[in-house]
Amino acid sequence: MLTQIVLPGVVEPDGLLVDRRPLPEPGPGQARIAVEASGVSFAEQQMRRGKYYDQPAFPFVPGYDLVGTVAAVGPGVEEALLGRRFAALTKTGGWASDALVDAGDLVAVPDGVDPAAAETVVVNGITAWQMLHRAAKARPGGTILVHGANGGVGSTLVQLARHAGIRVLGTASRRNHDAVRALGAEPIDYRDPDLAGRVRTLAPNGVDAVFDHVGGAGIVDSYRLLAPGGTLVSYGTAATKNDPGNSQLPVLKLIARLAWWNALPNGHRATFYNIWAGRRRRAAFQARLREDLGAVFGLLAEGAIAAQVAARVPLTQATGALRLAKSGTVTGKVVLVP
Ligand SMILES: NC(=O)c1ccc[n+]([C@@H]2O[C@H](COP(=O)([O-])OP(=O)(O)OC[C@H]3O[C@@H](n4cnc5c(N)ncnc54)[C@H](OP(=O)(O)O)[C@@H]3O)[C@@H](O)[C@H]2O)c1
């Protein structure tokens, strides 16, 4: 039997439903994955409130990513995949005991890597790697500013940057400063009214890149803190998460502002990172994901970066997992285990 968690509409965490039905058969090009780990990210918190800028119509099964082993393959898929462990970026559908995934979307998990550990770096690792190396093209010896340095994406980004020989200033709430320091970053309180002044004291010439998932008024400081030729990578608008109305509008406004900044002749770059950009050119998109997530998995396997597993929660207790993830009391990712 398939067990899955259904988000029926805008509900409190205890409104999630547990649904059981016969196992689905994989269609052409698909593999059925026996899921070993999925996770709770900011996206599911927003989807539950109907506030994620790009979510499907209710009801649906949430779960942005998963790790598991191939239990069955459909026509046209190599049987050699059976029994092997893979990860996939799914956007939805991960919160299930079993999931159908296009075989081309699978990324191999190295032998010996724990499924929950691997899970913490799927969406977080792809996002962090692509922002650091593709969007900002950060270089060893540079200095970057990472907002939310103890979060899922932020903590991965800090570790990847430190591994690449980059100095990191990281914002977080005060209670998380020790965790940020342990990752190798210099913590700054994001509630400090003189946050920008604090960054300028630590990096008087500005920073080579800023990674900003907050948006709102603070994005102006993020831009102004850049060193000559620096890059602002914006990737969210957490500041507007409670705003009423259309959830796409704040993102569109932000993108328009970045475009305007890019037209200024000062050598700075400002870009909005979207993990799904380019997905219409499917083969190239899948190849890029395999390369980038493969690189992150490689670093995890060799111990160059550490997984931040906040807790392992049984799938059927997804309500508790959601509550725990949004409590602000944990560092790293809450992982759901079927
Ligand atoms: N564009 C894309 O393709 C893409 C892909 C993946 C994720 N994202 C975005 O990335 C963001 C982070 O996701 P996540 O799953 O890593 O979330 P998360 O684990 O909940 O982390 C959020 C972090 O934000 C910090 N934070 C809260 N308010 C802040 C503020 N005013 N200034 C600076 N930091 C603040 C929190 O710090 P404390 O815990 O210390 O309060 C926490 O470290 C979300 O906005 C998500 O939508 C975007």
Task: Provide structural commentary.
By secondary structure, the chain is an alpha/beta fold. The chain has two domains: 2-120 and 307-337, Medium-chain alcohol dehydrogenases, catalytic domain (Quinone Oxidoreductase, Chain A, domain 1, Alpha-Beta Complex); 123-272, 3-Layer(aba) Sandwich (Rossmann fold). It is built from ten helices and 15 strands. It has helices spanning 42-48, 115-119, 123-135, 152-163, 177-182, 195-202, 219-224, 249-262, 282-301, 318-326; strands at residues 2-6, 17-21, 30-40, 65-73, 85-89, 98-102, 107-108, 143-146, 167-172, 186-189, 207-212, 226-234, 269-272, 309-314, 333-337.
Question: Layout of SSEs?
Answer:
Blueprint: E1 2-6, E2 17-21, E3 30-40, H1 42-48, E4 65-73, E5 85-89, E6 98-102, E7 107-108, H2 115-119, H3 123-135, E8 143-146, H4 152-163, E9 167-172, H5 177-182, E10 186-189, H6 195-202, E11 207-212, H7 219-224, E12 226-234, H8 249-262, E13 269-272, H9 282-301, E14 309-314, H10 318-326, E15 333-337
Parallel strand pairs: 8-9, 8-11, 9-10, 11-12, 12-13, 14-15
Antiparallel strand pairs: 1-2, 3-4, 3-6, 3-15, 4-5, 5-7
Helix pairs in contact: 3-4, 3-9
The structure holds NADP nicotinamide-adenine-dinucleotide phosphate.
